Amino acid sequence: MPLKVLLVEDNPGDVRLFREMLAEVPTAPFSLETVDRLSTALTRLAAGDISAVLLDLGLPDSQGFDTFYRTYEQAPSVPILVLTGLDDEALAVKAVREGAQDYLVKGRVEGQLLVRAIRYAIERKRIEDEMRQLNRALEQRVRERTAELERANEFLRTVVAERKRAEEELSRFFTVSLDLFCIAGFDGYFKRLNPAWERTLGFTPVELLARPYLEFVHPDDRESTLAEARKISAGADTISFENRYRCKDGSYRWLLWKSTPVAGQHLVYAAARDITERKKQEASVQEINAQLEAANKELEAFTYSVSHDLRAPLRHIDGFARILREDYGPQLDATAQHYLDRVQQGAGQMGQLIEDLLAFSRAARQEVRRQSVSLQRLVEDVQQALDTGGRSIDWRIGRLPSAPCDPVLMKQVFLNLLANAVKFTRPRQPAVIEVGAEQQNGEQVVFVRDNGVGFPMKYADKLFGVFQRLHRQEDFEGTGVGLAIVQRILHKHGGRVWAEAELDQGATFYFTLGATGPTVEEWRPSEVEAAP
User: Fold this and answer.
1) Helix (H) or strand (E) run with residue 383 in it
2) On the CB side of 163, how many CA atoms lie within 13 Å of its CA?
3) Farthest CA pair distance, the chain
């Protein structure tokens, strides 16, 4: 029976998209239920039988972190995956810290990734619940043991004469510990071991005491173990050291060590914890990340291949339509002429879409080659190359700094942003486009501002997704790929991009170049740029 996943989302387009993504993976063992209100979701969760929740934090009846808190409070045993846009990723990260299993950024999720994320969230939640049960049991045992030790200590304080019994209690603690306790000599042999060693490695204490401990260490870890032993012999404590010890069955277990030397006795008191399972989990996470990276590369290669292969048939469509118009145009009536126009217009739009897809793929694959680039000159070059259709535009180019970046990729960023500003200021007389730089909260920011048609901020999270458009094609042409290219290039530089706007009041796009961008001291025009 498929596991039931509850999607809490008020945007019908996003609901449809998530259904389509799950449908792309026929082996996905999930059935999707959807609600568009938090109140409805809480009622459904109270009824039970939900295996996971996909939760949008912005709902008509609840906003922000309170949405997650109320959902988590209603069903703490159900794994929650927070759905987030690019502008509220920090809120999603906070939700994960507070108990959400994961978060997914809308526009960056595909079917396989979504299915894996749900599966891993369910499995992680199950493991966490088991760990909590184990921790509660262990805490109870610790409380009981602590109470027992407190009673023993009280007894020892009142009956000093029973010192022998106190020593037996300490010896008992050494014996029952789950960690691997030992006393080792500077000569490289164990002197005393607790039973946890035999439980963990399988060797008896006699076998472990009879040979140098280095013989049980993995060959690849022996050099580092010897180096750590030399530091301990010199009087240094070990705070955190990892190596592998051989088990009797030939396998190896990872141990995490803490130790302190007693130089006068030439002894080392040490405690080791078995972290093998943690190491396996870390390796599993690394493998998952590698698989995700490979999947992304395959998707980019597929996009490039499909876009490239579509060029030839489109050229044929456009070419034959042109021949038809030239050879038989006078014989066609108005309706046929209109249909022919639609064919050529569609082929042209499709051709532009393919070019944009290829540019998007190239931006993903192209290596960033950083050098010091004058952003001032880059903007001026782009401005001169833009086709403004003879319009009168009030360009206000502020003084911009030089920055370490890829000049080709950064030119594409300014080309896309300025072309957008030119396009969306067409209804304005006069059109005003401003480019400048400023500091925001100690971060260096470049902006492109216009007095164009703007857009409602509630749709800002869709701006940088591929094929996302906020205006009708007949009003403003485009494919919805340009801003996605901008975001991808800036992410490759370690920066970010965002926008602020108001409907009919213009828009401002901001971006940074990340940690490799100009420092506060560097954020000043060069001598050439500052010249009047």
Assistant:
1) helix 375-385
2) 2
3) 121
Q: Cβ of 155: how many Cβ atoms within 10 Å?
A: 13
Closest by CA to 7, choosing from 95, 105, 81, is 81
Measured CA to CA in angstroms, residue 328 lies from 260, 318, 322, 340 at distances of: 95, 15, 10, 11
Structural tokens at position 50: 């939900």
Measured distance CA(294)–CA(404) in Å, rounded: 29
Q: Which long-range contacts (CB under 8 A, 24 or more apart) does 186-192 make?
A: 186/233, 186/261, 186/266, 186/267, 186/268, 187/266, 188/212, 188/213, 188/214, 188/229, 189/213, 191/267
pLDDT tens-digit readout, 12-29: 999 999 888 888 888 878
Phi, psi angles (nearest 5°) of residue 153: -65, -40
| Measured CA angle at 365 (ends 413, 367), to 5 deg | 75
Question: How far is residue 256 from each of residues 174, 273, 275, 421, measured CA to CA in Å?
Answer: 18, 5, 7, 58
| pLDDT at position 461 over 50 | yes
Closest CA to 461 of 78, 32, 45, 86: 86
- Residues in contact with 265: Cβ distance below 8 Å, sequence separation at least 6, in sequence order: none
CB 268 within 8 A of CB 232: yes
Per-residue pLDDT of 122-163, as tens digits, reads 888 888 888 888 888 888 988 888 888 888 878 767 766 666
Report yes or no: 105 and 464 within 8 Å, Cβ to Cβ: no
Six token digits for residue 242: 């990892």
Could you report the per-residue pLDDT of 432-460, keeping only the tens digit for each? 999 999 988 888 899 999 998 888 888 77
Rounded CA gap, 492 and 236, in Å? Answer: 43
Judge contact between 523 and 446, C-beta under 8 A: no
pLDDT tens per residue across span 220-247:
999 999 999 999 999 999 999 999 999 9
Instruction: Specify the amino acid at residue 287.
Output: E
Element (DSSP H or E) covering residue 392: none
SS3 443: strand
409: phi then psi, degrees, rounded to nearest 5: -65, -40
Instruction: Check: CB of residue 111 under 8 Å from CB of residue 22.
Output: yes
Count of beta carbons in the 10 Å neighbourhood of residue 195: 15
Distance CA 6, CA 75 (A): 12
Q: Which residues pair with 448 in a beta bridge?
A: 435, 509
Q: How far lies 464's CA from each of 11, 86, 132, 265, in Å?
A: 17, 8, 40, 67
